[in-house]
Amino acid sequence: xxxxxxxxxxxxxxxxxxxxxxxxxxxxxxxxxxxxxxxxxxxxxxxxxxxxxxxxxxxxxxxxxxxxxxxxxxxxxxxxxxxxxxxxxxxxxxxxxxxxxxxxxxxxxxxxxxxxxxxxxxxxxxxxxxxxxxxxxxxxxxxxxxxxxxxxxxxxxxxxxxxxxxxxxxxxxxxxxxxxxxxxx
Length: 185
Hints:
Structural class: mainly alpha
Largest sheet: none
Pfam family, one: Sigma70_r2
Helix content: over 70%
CATH superfamily of the domain at 1-91: RNA polymerase sigma factor, region 2, helix turn helix motif
CATH topology of the domain at 1-91: Rna Polymerase Sigma Factor, Chain: A
Low-confidence stretches: none
CATH architecture of the domain at 1-91: Orthogonal Bundle
Order of helices and strands: HHHHHHHHHH
Family: Belongs to the sigma-70 factor family. ECF subfamily.
Shape: elongated
Distance between the termini: 13 Å
Strand content: under 5%
Protein name: RNA polymerase sigma-70 factor (ECF subfamily)
Organism: Parabacteroides faecis
Radius of gyration: 19 Å
Keywords: Sigma factor, Transcription, Transcription regulation
Mean pLDDT: 85
Number of strands: 0
């Protein structure tokens, strides 16, 4: 959406204009939904969470209208909903809480480092959602620094199988980046 048009809609949203809200919803709902689908595989849950994000936009419309970047505002809301979803489901609870507390107290000067940490956290979640064998092979390759041949010997599988798993893991991560990067631009 054009920045000037977005600014016009945000100003109207701050005044309670339903039509402006509808235009923002129609422009950004699919972006929020795609972002959420990158981390939550249950489409019904994603639709509910995306709806919650926009209910909060309406509820806090004056705050949303004053946001410096509406896309960044939506990203933060969607990101927080992802955290809440995983926390509710007891996945990565301690890891997410550590990062969540950091975001509350962070100084604006550290924003780039924080965004990098957020991206790392989101990629960690994507890795943890990989099938067990793929996740194990990817971690052995990228985190433990083992060669494909070493991995194939340790797991007693074909070297080509290791290569296929790593290729697919990288493809999975590229898909996540494709979903996430629009929020960082």
